Amino acid sequence: MTAIAATRSTPRRLGLLGGITWHSSLEFERLLNEGVNAALGGSSAADLLVRSYNFQQIADAQAAGDWDGLGFTFGQDARRLQDAGAEAILICANTMHKVAPAVAEAIDIPVIHMLDATADAILAAGLDTVALLGTGYTMRDPFYCDHMAARGITTIVPQEPYLQEVHDLIYGSLARGLVPEHAPAWTRGIYEGLKERGAQGVISGCTEIPMVLTAADVDEPYFDSMALHVDAALRFALN
User: Fold this and answer.
1) Using one digit for the tens of pLDDT, what is the confidence trace for 95-113?
2) Does the model's pTM come out above 0.85?
């Protein structure tokens, strides 16, 4: 997370669509609060409105392919956060940015987009081809790779069966706050394979991926989507 210089004495109010999962949502809130406090000092903290979901219901809807239903729900909840005073919305998960267009359509305030924050950092690093590790939905569905391609960035994902195994690790363990003993070394091995296929760096494309792969584990640039999203949100809130 980058230190943000403030031009405001109080932060703008942010609306968070979280609980996707609650472990990562707590990290979002911690980073936002720490960032505001670092910029404003004293007992300053972020001004947040949070809609935290039952992740099991989200996962069931994803598995059923009910993205329209999820988009409607997230859009309506974003509208409620706007009505409560939120000045921008964060969707606190990479995968759920699949419904970002539905959320944006439902509200009159900005959606601070995680994929754009990540793309900005990749381009600033002078890269154009990066590994992507995330859920199966994020790695398979065109919403993510197409968004990056529109910014001139190629994403490389694991081949099967490894792609499915990464997905199963996230939903079966990491989303529950569990880190299998073998998982960090195994995930590093997955990344090494992507590097051999031309990846110049890696996107932590699920907010749970830092539980098993961090910047300290790779020699190339590491793009932590959560931290980059938080930086973008802090710039909005403080300036």
Assistant:
1) 999 999 999 999 999 999 9
2) yes
